[in-house]
Design brief:
Strand order of the largest sheet: 6-21-22-20-19-16-17-18
Number of strands: 22
Structural class: alpha/beta
Number of domains: 3
Helix content: 10-25%
CATH class of the largest domain: Alpha Beta
Strand content: 25-35%
Length: 425
């Protein structure tokens, strides 16, 4: 019998040798399992289903590694995610008003990272002649699950899947493999091809025709994740709207995957900014928070990626937004001392590793408030502990279920200094 769900979304069964973790199960399931490595087990048979179990929304569920929890949806799943946030905070000795989880709907994800493979005749996945695989990696594997449709993707990305699949013979030799990053923008799909080597003139021309034929905004190419993208074709501006500004995002730029989640995160950040005059937006990206914040305060945006900072600066100048932009590695050179003296609010939106160095500097400052957007509750809790030890109170935490049907949870939190500490230097 499965009696609970662990932190990674796996069901927990109590056995004579201790608890074991069983994927794709929910509380109340009666199961037959086979022991695996360590404290994990393989689900062999579902003997009886829990009332909490639902049918998956996708035929590829349990094989594709993109989703872990399609078999468990609704209020029980959101309650579990809410509990995971509270447990993570408690582990660091933190207490806060944790709001209900903001749910996001399927069918609205606007960016994805897809794997494309051309399988040679006679290969493990071949049919008659060449066969192209397009999709996501299998669970805990490099194998590509060939996906014809994904219920997470928005309408435009879903409609583009056949066209993207047709790139296999154009871009790959037999048994070759590459990565396609797609982002839905106001001008159309922005496609970044990640493949070793450089495209020749003929491939440039072929990809330009592909972009025009299928209405893509832009196609870029890079040899690997560490390389600078090379522009292949530009048909329309790959722009996104943040506040009153239009930002032409760089190839492969980070944007929130779900518009619903982005609106929820932004609403909390704007609420924290009511009545303030000076804001620093740190790890600002392309301006998803900086540009809307400019409607209520003067904003200094700091971003470690030069291309992101350049795009944000161009959009701010073009729109007349009250935003100054600085390119700076905040992990190595956090804002501190005089940088923080005149600020009323600091907004943080760091990567999964968090913002430890910056929070250590904030803990020594007199900045009245911090709004922290996090994609990793564990590193958020670590950083929030530093801020609380420095005199802040963790007032409000809002979990956001941006990555639907996964164990992942994001959050936005507000921390404020006690009134006694509000005096400026």
């Amino acid at each position: 019998m499965i009696d609970s769900v662990g932190a990674r979304g796996e069901g927990v069964a109590q056995t004579p040798s201790g608890p074991v973790f069983v994927p794709f199960t929910v509380p109340g399931d009666r199961v037959r399992i086979r022991a695996g490595a360590g404290d994990h087990a393989e689900l062999l048979d579902l003997l009886s289903s829990s009332p909490q179990r639902v049918g998956p929304a996708c035929a590829h569920f349990s094989d594709c590694g993109g989703c872990d929890l399609q078999h468990w949806q609704g209020p029980e799943l959101l309650a579990w995610k809410h509990h995971q946030v509270k447990v993570t905070l408690a582990h660091r000795g933190l207490q806060a008003e944790v709001q209900p989880v903001v749910a996001t709907p399927p069918g609205e994800r606007r960016r994805a990272r897809l794997a494309l493979r051309r399988v040679a005749p006679g290969g493990a996945h071949s049919r008659d002649g060449d066969h192209v695989l397009l999709g996501f990696r299998a669970r805990a594997s490099r194998r590509i699950v060939d996906v014809q449709a994904c219920p997470l993707l928005n309408e435009r990305l879903s409609a583009a899947m056949p066209a993207l699949r047709s790139l296999g013979p154009v871009l790959l030799r037999a048994d070759g493999e590459l990565v396609l990053e797609v982002t839905d923008t106001l001008g159309g799909i922005d496609l970044l091809i990640e493949r070793s080597g450089e495209p020749n003139a003929a491939l440039h021309a072929e990809l330009a025709r592909f972009a025009a034929r299928h209405g893509l905004a832009r196609i870029s190419w890079r040899a690997d994740a560490a390389s600078e993208p090379e522009l292949i074709a530009s048909i329309a501006s790959p722009a996104l709207r943040f506040g009153n500004a239009s930002v032409e995002v760089p190839p492969g730029a980070f944007v929130q995957a779900s518009p619903t989640a982005e609106r929820a995160l932004l609403a909390e950040v704007l609420a924290a900014a009511q009545g303030v005059k000076r804001v620093a937006d740190l790890y600002a990206g392309c301006g998803a928070f900086s540009l809307p914040l400019a409607g209520v305060a003067a904003v200094h945006a700091v971003e470690g990626d030069a291309a992101f900072a350049k795009a944000l600066d161009a959009a701010a100048r073009q729109s007349g937004a009250r935003v100054t932009v600085e390119h700076r590695d905040l992990d190595r050179r956090p804002l501190q001392g005089d940088d923080l003296k005149r600020l009323d609010l600091v907004v943080l939106d760091p990567p999964r590793a968090g913002a430890r160095a910056q929070c250590e500097a904030l803990a020594k400052s007199k900045v009245p408030a911090v709004a922290y957007v996090s994609c990793n509750p564990a590193t958020f809790a670590r950083d929030a502990r530093v801020l609380v030890d420095g005199g802040y109170t963790l007032e409000r935490v809002v979990p956001v279920d941006q990555f639907l049907w996964s164990a992942h949870i994001e959050l936005v939190a507000v921390l404020r200094r006690q009134p006694l500490n509000l005096a400026r230097r």
